[in-house]
Each structure stands twice: as C-alpha cells, then as structure tokens.
Amino acid sequence: MYVRGPAKSFAPVIALLALAAGCAVVIEDPLEEGGAGGGIAGGNATGGQTNSAGGEANGAGGEGGQGGSEPVPRKIEVEFAIDPAFLDGAFIVVSAVDGAFKSYVPAADSPTFVEVVDGDLVSFFDGDNGSSPLIESYRVTPEVDRISNAAEGLGFFPGCEPIEPMQLTVSVPSVPGATSYRVYLEPGSSKQSSEPFEASFEVTCASGPLNVFATALFGSEIVAYEMVEDVPLQPGGSAHVELELSETARTTMTINVGDVDGADEVAASAHWNGLYFGTVMQSLEGQSFAPPEGPFTFAPAIISPPGGYPVVMASGTYPKVNGACRTSGFSHLGFTDETLTFDVGALAEPRPTDRHSWSFVDDGEIGDSLWQSWTFDFDVRWLVHEDPARPPLPSVFPQLPDDLPPELVRPQGTQELYSVGHEAWDRYEGFADSTHGDKSIFEGSNRFRNFVPCE
User: Fold this and answer.
1) Range(s) of the domain holding residue 127
2) Is a pLDDT exceeding 70 seen at residue 337?
3) Are 100 and 18 contained in the same domain?
4) Strand 16-18 to 357-360 pairing
C-alpha cells in the first residue's frame, strides 16, 4: 500500500487521555451529538463537510441518512502478511467507530474471520518490525468483505542465514567509452572502479543462490550492463563470475503530463529497480519545469535486464497552505507499450478538518482510498484508510484492554495528525477492492494527492 511516509504536521493536535493503568488511549470527547447515516454504529454526523463524492455539503447523518438504525453484524476475512521474523508482535484488532474494543486475533492465526459492523476499524498492529512500530487501520464499509495488507509481488526476502565464508570474484571487462564500472551483489554490497577490475566479495550469509548485476558507465550514464542470476552458493569454497558487459538494450516508455495549471513545478522521471539491489540510480532519467509552461511528453529509454522492473514517475507541486506542502503524483511499475497519461490536477485534493477528520477542497476526481497519518509522543505511526466516496468519520484510536498481550504496541500521549493523502489505482475499482490484497503491485498505475506539513 503506498507507502506513504509521515511528515511533521502543523495540523490539529488532539489531546489524548491515557487511562490510569497506562495501557490504553482514548480521544477526549471524540464524537459530537447525532447518529451516523447508513446505520454506522455509534457514529456522529460530520455535518458541514463539502465532499464532492456526496454532491451537496452534507454530513454523514444528513438528510436521507439512517441515524439510529441498528447495524447488522457480519463476518469478513482478515489477513496480516508480515515477515515471519516479526510475527510474534503482530496483531489484528477490531474496534467500533467510537474506539471501543471489540476483538483481536494474533497475526499468526490469519487469514481468519472476524465479526464487524459498518463503521468499525480493523487495525493491523506491527509493533516489533525492527524499526518504528506501525499501526494500519481500515474502515469497514458495506462493500468490504476482506481486508488484507498482502500484495502479489510484495514479498519478504528470506532471512540471511550465516554460512562458512565463501569467496566470490567477479571479472569486469573493458567497455569502449566507459569511464567507470560498478558491481552489485545482493543484498546491498557493491564495488566500483575507474578501470576494468576483479571485484572480490566475502559472502558470510545468504538465503540461496547469489545474484550479480554490473554496469559500465560514461560519467553517470549506463553504457552497458549485465545481470547474472543464480550463482551457486559454495559455503567454505569459492566461485568466479566472468562478465561480458555486452547488454545495451533499452525500452522506451512514454507519458503525457497535463492539467498543470496552478502548479509551481512539474517533473517526470524514470529508473530501473532491481529486485535484489534496489534502485540503480545511474539508470535515472528525468526532466522538470518550474514553472510549467504547459502539458509535455516524457519518453525515457530505460535499461531492461531480468530481475527487476522500470518505474516511471511524474509529480506536481502547488503553493503551500499554512506551512503544508501540496503535491500530486503518479507512478507506474513495469513495462507497457501504451502511452501513460497523468493529469496533475485531476484528483480531488484532501485537507485535515475538525481536529480529527478530513474533507476535499475541490470537486476533482474521487479515487480509491483516503489515508490519514498520525503520530504519538514516541515513534509510532498510525495510518487510517477510509473510503473517499463516503462522508468521513472521526479517526478514533482503538481502546486496548489491559489483558491483551504485552507485545501489542500501546501508543501514549498526544495524537498528532501528520498528513492526509488521496490515492487512485488503475488496478482497483473502489475502496473495497483496494482492501482485498490480491492484485499485483506491478499492474497498472498509481496516482496520489497529498497534503503534508513541511518546512
């Protein structure tokens, strides 16, 4: 799910009350009077929001709503895809729209089924992931029947198992016109030289056969490259790879960038990303316009070895509002013969409102998901995913009883709204489809419109 890094916020701060036991957090007076429309359990009317998804300005409990109708419980499937190394600290929690705790299951027991009603939050607690704890919540709407954070093509690398040291030597030949050479060895080792050379690596841990990628450069431009996959592992022994560096093939992709009115700057770029090595920056091509004079076409020629994929991106930035950066973006993973199109201003722009909610400020296109990124007094991030085609509900953090497992992360203190973002994918047909987690991340394009506090 795009990721979506937090940025420091000027946005409204919500004061939280930690319970006396220090084990749960609730929002002080999070709900106003009124019932949510459509039978949302315990909800409030968020009246006065101008939401293009719903036409006229109307609250969730506005005219035609069913505030007061009893919600109907049902079972939905949930799945927590996580690196097995961090499974013990991962849990799925179900909470009501007012934050009241309903149920939990360990990630190890998923996929499984949980009971929900419309308006509930299903939260994935990843408390021991080797970095900052992440909590990701998804709103239950009438169309949602499955919530999963899995995505085809987004796997976890097997653990690097210690082995008896192996010596690997890579022979790099001379390439006419090259001024430097670089050799990459998964997972992240590399060596470079201004001349043809023998690159030596000591391999002390591995998860299987090795993969080698090498480039010959003229300045910062790749003039030749080669990928060698599945070099046999020889614990305690040695292996030698002799390169030819004869590959020069490139594939051209084209994107038309339009609707640039009002933008301070627009840009487009492309690069190749190795599955084993990450982004190879020397493959980067780009162009930008500040200010933009009008629509433009970008047609980069990208290297195309196996074991990776190209990434085409475009973006636009708009004048700041109250210290927040306003951005619009596009990305496409994988090759396509079709001409890509990105209209910078097409997607509706979100803003934080009412201390704990959001609204759109224009009548732009409605995408597949609306997210809010929150932080607390220590390094915990909470992402809340909503259906942008429905009126917003307050983001109320789940209340966590004392008797839940101690590994479950429990944020304390001040809850602060970092940013809000609005996303659309070619591969999804609405919010419920985006929660299924059963489509490849390499299919189609992604667009976003973000409101992120910045310097």
Assistant:
1) 13-154+350-440
2) yes
3) yes
4) unpaired
